[in-house]
UniProtKB/TrEMBL annotation:
Protein name: histidine kinase
Domain Histidine kinase: from-to ranges: 260-496
CDD domains: HisKA, HK9-like_sensor
E.C. numbers: 2.7.13.3
Signal sequence region: none
PROSITE patterns: HIS_KIN
Organism expressing this protein natively: Sphingomonas aliaeris
Coiled-coil regions, chain positions: 222-253
Domain of life: Bacteria
């Protein structure tokens, strides 16, 4: 029931999450597009504003040129008619402003080929007009007023002024034409911007509607799934209790089977050991008989009989005794594990620093023999757990660290611990021979050992440690490299409650 429900939830949640992410991506893309469109439109507006200002500047400069030419013509006529110096001074002042005005027009329109052509034509026209004006003023200054007036009447000034006005009007018209083009471009960019803005709005509206529909549907699915989970949770506790009871019964059966098997194996083993002792006694008697036979009647003693009595039988009995002793130790180990599994866990406060000092004292002869030291790094956090079990765990780990030190290198075993939340992590680190990575899990298996077997043991120590760690509600693992020592890491609850100890004992 649980698996289809979780699979259904996982699929729907995954699809909803991917769809919502896609909607958010589309929405962000639309917003980014709108931002870029706004920036582009703003830039176009700024460019248009600069060009409008440029057009007005050109028109103003053209107006100044027109005004300077018209005013110069007016004061020149006044001078020709009256001969007064004030008109001549005014003419010269006005004429002096004409060249800067033309230069400004030239600078402002230098980027436009048409306007450059108009400027060239205007400059020629202005030079022509100024030449005729200077000629009449020269005659007037020489006292030949009538000749100056006759020259003024005879000159085609009106036609020249019309040409100048036409050129200036053409320049103004060109700026107006460019302004009209830029106005159309601005209008086009504004239309495009509003189009993008409208499209973005529609897209965001669609994304919002799709997202809302997805959230509503997903919420309905969550409500339905919550109801299913509530129904499942109603039966979950009952299922857990039922499975726990099954595990407890199976665990009891396994422990009972191990105890019975170990007990039943011990009976024939005792017989084998007893008969081995009788064979050993008989071998001594047979050996004495062979010795006497060789002394009194050496001819009746064959070489096979001599070898059988003095070598084959003692060697066979020695092999049998070694095997039976090993089998006895294994049976004792199985019985020990079986009894440990049936023992009731009793949590109590344990001072870890004092416990490690006690273990150090009990191993003093071994550490001195192997030039090793056991040190506690910092302060070991206390724990509420089963005292006997935690002592067995630390005794096994520290004793193993001392036993498997690297020959020729002073040994150092460091014990440290820290509390992380509701759990405590203890580490036992050594600088011994280390464990190959391929054996990191293998060393915790029953009757399995790693590396060179030069130390006594049956391979039950670490298996016993792991079983005890499980019963205390914790786990144990190892980090190690060959030749670089090993670090065993034990993680336990800081406070082992009676319910946890009962539960761990049921499923251990």
């Amino acid at each position: 029931m649980a698996r289809p429900l979780l699979q259904r939830l996982g699929v729907r949640e995954g699809l909803a999450r991917r769809f919502l992410v896609a909607c958010l991506a589309v929405g962000f893309l639309a917003l980014i597009t709108a931002i870029f469109a706004a920036a582009w439109s703003t830039k176009r507006s700024q460019d248009h504003g600069r060009w409008v200002t440029h057009t007005y500047e050109v028109e103003l400069a053209v107006t100044k040129v027109t005004t300077a030419i018209e005013r110069a013509e007016t004061v020149r006529r006044g001078y020709l008619l009256t001969g007064q110096q004030v008109y001549l001074d005014s003419y010269r002042d006005v004429a002096a402003t004409l060249s800067p005005a033309l230069s400004r027009v030239m600078r402002l329109t230098d980027d436009n080929p048409r306007q450059r052509g108009n400027i060239v034509r205007l400059q020629a026209q202005v030079r022509d007009i100024l030449a005729y004006r200077n000629q009449s003023i020269t005659l007037m200054a020489a006292g030949r007023q009538q000749a100056a007036i006759d020259a003024f009447v005879a000159e085609t000034g009106a036609a020249r002024m019309k040409g100048v006005r036409a050129t200036l009007a053409a320049m103004t018209a060109e700026e107006q034409r460019l302004l009209a083009i830029r106005d159309r471009e601005l209008q086009s960019s504004v239309t495009i911007f509003y189009g993008i803005l409208a499209l973005t709005g529609v897209l965001l509206l669609l994304v919002a509607m799709a997202t809302l529909a997805t959230v509503l549907r997903y919420t309905r699915d969550l409500s339905a799934s919550r109801d299913d989970l509530r129904d499942f949770a109603d039966t979950l506790e009952e299922l857990v209790e039922e499975r726990t009871a099954d595990l407890s019964r199976a665990n009891e059966e396994i422990q009972r089977f191990a105890y019975i098997v170990s007990h039943d194996l011990r009976s024939p083993l005792v017989n084998v050991m007893g008969f081995t002792a009788e064979l050993d006694t008989a071998t001594v008697a047979i050996t004495d008989l062979i010795d006497r036979a060789e002394a009194t009647a050496p001819d009746i003693v064959t070489e096979d009989a001599r070898l059988a009595a003095r070598e084959d039988l003692p060697e066979a009995i020695r092999f049998i005794r070694t095997s039976t002793q090993k089998m006895d130790r294994l049976i004792n180990a199985i019985l020990k594990l079986s009894r440990e599994g049936r023992r009731v866990i009793s949590p109590e406060p344990v001072g870890m620093g004092a416990m490690v000092q006690t273990i150090d004292g009990s191993l003093k002869h071994l550490t001195e023999d192997r030039d090793a030291t056991i040190a506690v790094e910092g302060t070991l956090p206390g724990i509420v757990t089963d005292r006997l079990a935690i002592e067995q765990i630390f005794s096994n780990l520290i004793e193993n660290a001392v036993k498997y030190l690297q020959p020729g290198r002073p040994g150092r075993i460091v014990v440290r611990g820290e509390k992380t939340g509701s759990r405590i992590v203890y580490e036992i680190e050594d600088n011994g021979r280390g464990i190959a990575p391929s054996d990191h899990q293998r060393v915790f298996d029953l009757f399995r050992r790693s590396g060179h077997q030069d130390q006594p043991g049956e391979g039950i120590g670490l298996a016993h440690v792991r079983a005890l760690a499980y019963r205390l509600g914790g786990v144990i693992d190892v980090r190690s490299e060959l030749g670089k020592g090993a670090t065993f890491r034990l993680t336990l609850p800081a406070v082992l409650t009676e319910a946890e100890s009962k539960r761990s004992g049921e499923v251990s």
